[in-house]
């Protein structure tokens, strides 16, 4: 039986002020400002100049909070870029039903596909981060979201492809995408030990500085162990074609893993597009369209 209230409170600045005042009175006087984001699982608010408040928007996203609290303090010293640092563990209150967090504010901006300032340098930065994740040797890793075999994504991917094929709005060549996806299902599966993954390296989860270099990676809600191809997403959702070989070479990715990574990125995009388009979340829909174009261009 669900324990959720019949009506969730509006997640806005007023709710954040009430939660902070009740649970962290030392920060009660700080200004609160909602941070615009293309994310759909969490709402982000800036608290003063040095802090950020992150509140899950869905019951499914609420599980990310304890996962990050447990693992980020252990991962942070092992990674070459900044990651979120939780400094306040918020609990349900003021009608809000889930755990939430206060973290250090991380400066930077999200990179944009088709507008990468230093693509080769960013490819090297991303590869350095992925290598460091793969080298983590912490025991007890959870299974990464999307970290299993491609076959577990098949039903949902084909359902989304069928929707796109019936709807001419985006002009998606669903038949060509279906052929690419079907071929990927015959690729050799990962047969090594599971490796640590971020498992959601979307542009919205990356921060870059003014020169376009990677400064931080955020939102570790999907983290865990699985197929290393899961962390190849930036090759198609962010990096331009000329930078992909840099990323691939720096990671030493063989052909089967590279194509599994492309298929995983494609699956995420074709599932996201029919869900987020038509005004639901244009940032997510636009990136899904970008991935589809890039994958089709490689045929």
Automatic annotation (TrEMBL):
CDD domains: APH_ChoK_like_1. Residues 35-261 form the Aminoglycoside phosphotransferase domain. GO terms for molecular function: transferase activity. Keywords: Transferase. InterPro entries: AGP_Transferase, Aminoglycoside_PTrfase, Kinase-like_dom_sf. It holds the Pfam family APH. This is Phosphotransferase.
């Amino acid at each position: 039986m669900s324990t959720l209230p019949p009506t969730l409170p509006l997640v806005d600045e007023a709710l954040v002020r009430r939660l902070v005042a009740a649970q962290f009175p030392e920060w009660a006087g700080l200004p609160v400002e909602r941070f615009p984001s293309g994310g759909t699982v969490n709402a982000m608010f800036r608290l003063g100049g040095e802090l950020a408040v992150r509140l899950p928007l869905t019951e499914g996203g609420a599980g990310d909070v304890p996962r990050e609290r447990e693992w980020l303090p252990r991962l942070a010293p092992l990674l070459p870029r900044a990651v979120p640092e939780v400094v306040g563990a918020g609990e349900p209150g003021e009608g809000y039903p889930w755990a939430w967090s206060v973290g250090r504010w991380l400066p930077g901006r999200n990179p944009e596909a088709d507008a990468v300032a230093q693509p080769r340098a960013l490819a090297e930065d991303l590869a350095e981060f992925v290598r460091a994740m793969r080298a983590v040797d912490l025991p007890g890793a959870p299974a990464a979201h999307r970290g299993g075999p491609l076959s577990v994504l098949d039903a949902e991917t084909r359902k989304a492809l069928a929707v796109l094929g019936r709807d001419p709005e985006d002009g998606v060549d669903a038949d060509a995408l279906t052929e690419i996806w079907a071929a990927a299902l015959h690729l050799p599966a990962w047969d090594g030990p599971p490796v640590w993954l971020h498992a959601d390296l979307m542009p919205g989860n990356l921060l870059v500085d003014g020169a376009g270099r990677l400064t931080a990676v955020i939102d570790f809600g999907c983290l865990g162990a699985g197929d290393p191809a899961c962390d190849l997403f930036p090759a198609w959702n962010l990096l331009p074609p000329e930078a992909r070989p840099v990323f691939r070479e720096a990671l030493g990715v063989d052909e089967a893993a590279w194509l599994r990574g492309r298929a995983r990125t494609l699956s995420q995009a074709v599932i996201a597009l029919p869900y987020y388009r038509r005004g639901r979340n244009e940032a997510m829909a636009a990136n899904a369209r970008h991935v589809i174009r890039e994958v089709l261009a490689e045929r």
